[in-house]
Amino acid sequence: MARAVSTRTRFAWTALAWTIAFLMFFPILWTVLTSFKTEAEAIASPPSVVAFDWTLENYGVVQERSDYMRYLWNSIIIAGGSTLLGIAVAIPAAWAMAFVPGRFTRDILMWMLSTKMLPAVGVLYPIYLICIELGVLDNRAALVVILMLINLPIIVWMLYTYFKEIPGEILEAARMDGANLRSEILYVLTPMAIPGIASTILLNFILAWNEAFWTLNLTSVDAAPLTAFIASYSSPEGLFFAKLSAASTMAIAPILILGWFSQKQLVRGLTFGAVK
Amino acid sequence: MATKASKSAARLMMAPAVTLLLGWMLVPLTMTLYFSFADYRPLRATFEPWIGFDNYVRFTSSSSFWDAVTTTLVMVGSILAITVVLGILLALLLDKPIFGQGIVRILIISPFFVMPTVSALVWKNMMMDPVNGVFSHVSRFLGATPHDFLTQTPLFSIILIVSWQWLPFATLILLTAIQSLDGEQLEAAEMDGAPPLKRFWHIILPHLARAITIVILIQTIFLLAIFAEIFVTTQGSFGTRTLTYLVFQRVLESQNVGLGSAGGIIAVILANIIALFLMRAVGKNLDA
Amino acid sequence: MRQKTASLVTTALAVCTAGTAFADAHATTVTIATVNNGDMIRMQGLTDDFNEKHPDITLEWVTLEENILRQRVTQDIATNGGQFDVLTIGMYETPIWAAQGWLVPLDDLGEDYDADDIIPAMRAGLSYEGTLYAAPFYGESSMVMYRTDLFDEAGLEMPREPTWEQIAEFARTLTDKDAEQYGICLRGKAGWGENMAFITTVANSFGARWFDEEWNAQLDSPEWLEAVTFYNDLMADAGPPGAATNGFNENLALFQQGKCGMWIDATVAASFVTNPNDSEVADSVGFALAPDTGRGKRANWLWAWALAVPSGSDATDAAKQFIAWATSKDYLELVASTEGWSNVPPGSRTSLYKNPEYAQVPFAEMTLESINLADPGNPTVDQVPYVGIQYVAIPEWQGIGTSAGQEFSNMLAGQQTPEEALARAQELVNEEMEAAGYR
After folding, report:
1. Contact across the interface for C399 and B43, Cβ inside 8 Å
2. Complex ipTM value
3. pTM score
């Protein structure tokens, strides 16, 4: 699209794009702004946008009540652990599907996706009972495994579509040079697939971070992540808009910032084979 | 290139993923199936292992069941329509030469990073609240009566919240697809004097077909499981009770695990019918 | 039942294999599941005092929003999950769970605990077969809170014992929707502990009841229709926008912002609305008994948030020590010394109301009177087979109450008429009761 575009058109598109971007971002922006207001200012009508006395008081109150770092750490461990474990299980599977397709490859892939249709509430009792039996309620490792299983189909699929785009000739050349299966995957395939793996990791990290059913229902203290943190601030007694905003900001800030910085990597592999 | 050795190696490599998912699917599903034929009400300490199809009959014959199915279809369908249509428009816009493209893109994808509970809380309290919400401030400023979103237009409100969360995802996938479009083909069409709408219809849209089916498939999987947004905003009142939410009410609010499990099994079956339908379409596209 | 599940589970594939079971490494850690209500959060802030007295016990807090808390706690106790050592539960759950043998008796909370000091109505509601199973952290009834300044301005006078008719008249007079001034704020958010608690008390005062003595649902009675229509009309004329999603917390925020002329809700709210730090109307709040219709019952409920120990706890003794601390007279003194008497958790102990300093608190007397007026064993004008004023103390109530609550919430949102809401509620209640084997 290397065509000359008149500056005026360019400005028009820019104005439109910025307006939409602002509207999309507004709820988040408003929450962050409100988190720096006092409760009284948070409900002032008409509200002030920036001309209020900025205060960190809400963050102090929230931190005093709940140890933010502990929840944050659990979120990182659970989301990170489940993603890495998932990648480790998925890479061989996706490799096999992409380069040694069998008669049932596609059916297996589709079946894997269909396991995501299991409604979580429907199987809460079974999973809860199993976890009691194994003594792994409120256990980070258990959540790592469960979230890994939930996201595994997506991981396999993303990797599969990405691997499929790698030309087969390169592998054959490597094989000619005497590379065995292991080194083929480790030294030829993986480096080529790194962008795809990176975006798979990012997407699944986000999905695991935001998972709010299992992480809330299977934890109490030791393994409780940020989704449980926010559950103690939703609809408390009295005026709470500012404190709720502060807690919300704290819950989403890490992942938002990570998302911003890794945006390019995330987007690059986020095609699910949609691009030919 | 698939030799016999590599075939068995491939099977071995798929084994962990397949076994794990098989276990993940079968174990809870078997137990749920088992419970669904039982009269299992923990609060009464009742457990009668076999009561036949009673739970299924009760679940499907209750008036809430069909309402919930309809609500689910309307909700998922509308969100898909909104995110796909707006996603295409946004992707086209982001493909234009604009100043500060990087920042615009960052702002637009941000909602995708917000956890569902938080986004529901933010929309309910900060945006849609009829007294303190931003929308009510704006309408008062314009001299209008604030609209009461969650009680007057509850289903639309939830659709709006969820669409806001998923629009970035659709936009991103569609944008990558648009960017992969052959520029020469478009220019040729432009040379031929094809008007923009025609170009869109005959060149861009067919090119996007694959991306659109994938957006629909992935979003459907996640949208059928919408929970936090309903729990936080309306708790299933005002005709926003989806099938998932109905199962939740049976299992956790009424603590009737048998009845809820039957509902869960029915939800799995319905979801898989939809999935089968969608995957046929996507599967075809994947082979192309 | 547990046996069956166990064998099913053990024969089944292990899913959660990665975890290592930790036995009793936390022998003296007490995990407390509690609601994010103001009094509980204050208690969390005062744990230093407990730690000083019991250095060998570590407290872990799981503070959750009420609905999530209930769901988590119920799930855990029904499956004997053993996640918590202290549960925050209400008057509804206590006797039901105690009957199942899920709770540890609390008849031995120490010599200086003085269980006889607990307000009799609270003690009765939290006991099963004469044994206390949950110790009240705070107790409440419901009453009218109103804005004395607005009443003066409009030349109205709130009687001590208002009738519904008077309340409706006041509410309509005080409403000025353009100025965002609403005559009355009442619960509308669906839930057995939200709108159904309130609507049930209204129904009681109009002479209605949930069930007759054969457990037939009575929602098709003229009394119910009268009560529900009254509520619906009143809210349409004098209620705030979006009332159908307002629960206790939302109404509290509205009242504190000065948007409500009256608010009929839990007596504990009195200490929040009169607290100048949070409330813009702290100086001008008056109190009156919950209204009636002259048919013999007032619309006031009885509730307690109480602390209990599940029988699956592995730290029963430490948990009891914590409960003894949190529900003691000393704890009340402690709160009084740091936060002032008006912030003391109310409604749990008789001695508090005999304390001359507490008598200075403007809502103390009205709270006690409301509590004493409530009789859960005899909640309605006509005879009923159940216990409980704003709830029906049977395990099915949570499901019934919440489903019926959604019908009334839909009604308030204008999606159906009172007749339709009642007809649907009647049908689903009967359906549920039949399935549960009552009829």
Report:
1. no
2. 0.89
3. 0.90
